[in-house]
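User: Here's a structure from my thesis project, written as structure tokens. My advisor, Dr. K., wants to see whether a designed sequence matches the one we expressed. Can you design one independently, without my sequence as a hint?
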């Protein structure tokens, strides 16, 4: 019985990580005897996240060849789509901005669209059969575009936001450098100077994926905490929780539709659908209405349910039809 449960958890690792994050948080947050332990351990788990992300990207990037790091046409088509949808959301906010509750929901949806692609997208894409070199370049492009459009759009969403080009560029440049460029450079140097060590790493194909699952469990627990502590209520809270599901499905579907034109639907779907919502939450809390941060938090859960379903389908049928 236990062996069967472990096998099921192994085959559905992403869903298991989501469930683990929810259950562990609820247990340590709401059982009085355990809550002091949760409060003491929580900060250490949060501090682990950037370390885990760096490690999983390093292990993944060790499989990249420099020849794979080339921009594709669809990279720029996806950026045009993302920017156009974000601009449309800014227009809607300007039209319906007099209604504070509706504006709050629209801000949540807006941040889910404008978020750059998650750096860890390469981990899931590789499991699905995608090209990690192509997605690495795309993610860098996505962050550069984000540096340009955020200072343009945010002051239109919140008039008193005060965000400047320099503020946004420094924050996002730091994110790109620490999260993407450093592990990529280290991996390429490792391939050049310690190829035997890299070969040993590459024999363990799922090491980066399981580090991602650990990170996902922690992020899920933090997301549940933020949702439970949110002061938004009624239809606004439910809208901030449910609307990201539709945003998520729309973005995955649009990305896959674009990708099919260039015979690259897996990469393009993940590129547009899998978002760096941690950056989105930070941006929302810093420059927009903090209550809207529930939306990118919920998006974390929805995008990983989609990823979990895709991994299950690929495992069962050998390919993706969506």
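Assistant: Designed independently from the structure alone:
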């Amino acid at each position: 019985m236990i062996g069967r449960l472990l096998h099921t958890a192994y085959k559905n690792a992403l869903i298991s990580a989501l469930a683990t994050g929810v259950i562990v948080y609820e247990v340590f947050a709401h059982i009085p005897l355990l809550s002091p332990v949760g409060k003491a351990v929580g900060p250490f788990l949060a501090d682990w996240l950037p370390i885990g992300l760096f490690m999983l990207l390093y292990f993944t990037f060790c499989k990249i060849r420099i020849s794979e790091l080339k921009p594709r046409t669809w990279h720029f088509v996806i950026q045009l789509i993302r920017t156009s949808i974000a601009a449309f959301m800014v227009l809607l906010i300007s039209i319906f901005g007099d209604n504070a509750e509706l504006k709050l929901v629209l801000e949540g949806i807006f941040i889910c669209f404008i978020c750059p692609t998650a750096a860890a997208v390469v981990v899931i894409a590789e499991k699905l059969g995608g090209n990690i070199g192509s997605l690495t370049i795309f993610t860098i492009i996505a962050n550069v575009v984000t540096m340009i459009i955020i200072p343009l759009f945010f002051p239109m969403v919140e008039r008193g936001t005060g965000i400047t080009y320099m503020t946004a560029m420094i924050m996002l440049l730091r994110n790109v450098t620490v999260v993407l460029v450093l592990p990529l450079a280290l991996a390429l140097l490792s391939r050049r100077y310690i190829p035997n060590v890299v070969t040993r790493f590459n024999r363990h194909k799922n090491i980066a994926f399981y580090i991602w699952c650990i990170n996902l469990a922690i992020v899920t627990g933090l997301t549940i905490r933020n949702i439970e502590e949110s002061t938004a209520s009624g239809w606004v809270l439910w809208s901030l929780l449910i609307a990201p599901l539709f945003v998520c499905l729309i973005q995955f579907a649009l990305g896959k539709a674009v990708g099919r034109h260039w015979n690259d639907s897996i990469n393009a779907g993940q590129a547009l659908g899998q978002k760096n919502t941690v950056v989105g939450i930070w941006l929302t809390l810093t420059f927009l209405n903090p209550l809207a941060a529930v939306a990118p938090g919920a998006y974390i859960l929805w995008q990983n349910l989609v990823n979990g379903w895709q991994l299950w389908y690929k495992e069962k049928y050998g390919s993706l039809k969506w």
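When you compare it with your expressed construct, this may help: Residues 165-193 form the longest helix (29 residues).
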